[in-house]
Amino acid sequence: METKNIGEHQLVYNGELEGITAAFEYAAKTAQKDQNIHVYADNQAAIYRLQSLSDKPGQQWVIRCQKAAKAIQNKKAKIFLKWAPGHTDIEGNEKADSLAKKATKQTPKKSQTSLAFLGTKIKLLQRASQAEEWRKYRETAREKKTSYGAIFDLKLKNQLAIPRGTKRDISSSFYSLKIGHGYFNSYLKRVKRRECELCRCGRPQTAEHLLLYCGFYSAERNQLKKTLDQKILKLPLLLHTTSGIKATLAFITSTRIGTRTWHLDQEG
Question: How far apart are CA 96 and CA 235, in angstroms?
């Protein structure tokens, strides 16, 4: 039995792909006519990757496996790749685990860096950089109680919080209300697009005012409270939680606050 250490610049995922590929290539050499060969793996991501030939990380193993599988077929034999969670009740499992542990102590024959490894490292560096920039920003934001950093906690996500299918004007209004830059008088006066920052109700027309206090939207706000089962609403709840975002989008849809058409109607 052969053991191999693929190096420290690879992921466990790469090790699984190498192990499966090595099994396929061994089978290609030893396969006999009408033989059924079974290869077991407990990594679903690796198995899924081997199903398609693409230019994503892992391509080299896909090519090698397909070449080996074709050689096995040419010998009139069959090979099956099966998922076995934890290798439960699989003959040779304990031996395989023992060999895997032995391989970790070997000196790698090659020093290669996988694309998947690089991608993981880049993501970690990006998150660390973002976290540091956020920390610096929070230090200055604490002095301004109405600033974004003083109201909302950091949440690093790969996707936007807005549900798919949300209309563009509604999503734009949501984010403008969240960052405090949009079609409301307090901001428009600050950028010299308005002479007065007051709302029709006589109070400064801020994002917080429109969402939490303006009397013109009391009925819609009561529905918002009912939806969220809250007697008192706060911005972090409305703009920074999954349930709050969904309810706030419905509130914006019914009131149109923060949208361009709403702003033009206010001027009229």
Answer: 54
Q: What is the CATH number of the domain that holds 16?
A: 3.30.420
Separation CA 18–CA 41 (nearest Å): 11
Domain count, the chain: 3
> Model-level pTM?
0.54
Residues of the chain with pLDDT under 50: none
**Residue 28, burial from CB neighbour count under 10 angstroms (0-12, 13-18, 19+):** buried
Query: What pLDDT sits at residue 47?
Result: 87
User: pLDDT of 107-152, one tens digit each?
Assistant: 666 666 677 777 778 888 888 888 888 777 777 766 666 677 677 7
Q: Confirm whether 83 is domain-assigned.
A: yes
Considering the domain architecture, whether residues 200 and 140 belong to the same structural domain is answered as no
Does residue 162 sit within a domain?
no
Claim to verify: residue 238 and residue 201 sit in the same structural domain: yes
Tell me how far apart the alpha carbons of residues 63 and 66 are, in angstroms, rounded to a whole number.
5
| Domain region containing 213 | 168-267
80 - beta bridge partners? Answer: 38
Report helix, strand or coil for 253. helix
Per-position b or e across 61-80, b if 16+ CB within 10 A of its CB:
bbebbeebbebbeebebebe
Phi, psi values for residue 23, rounded to 5°: -65, -40
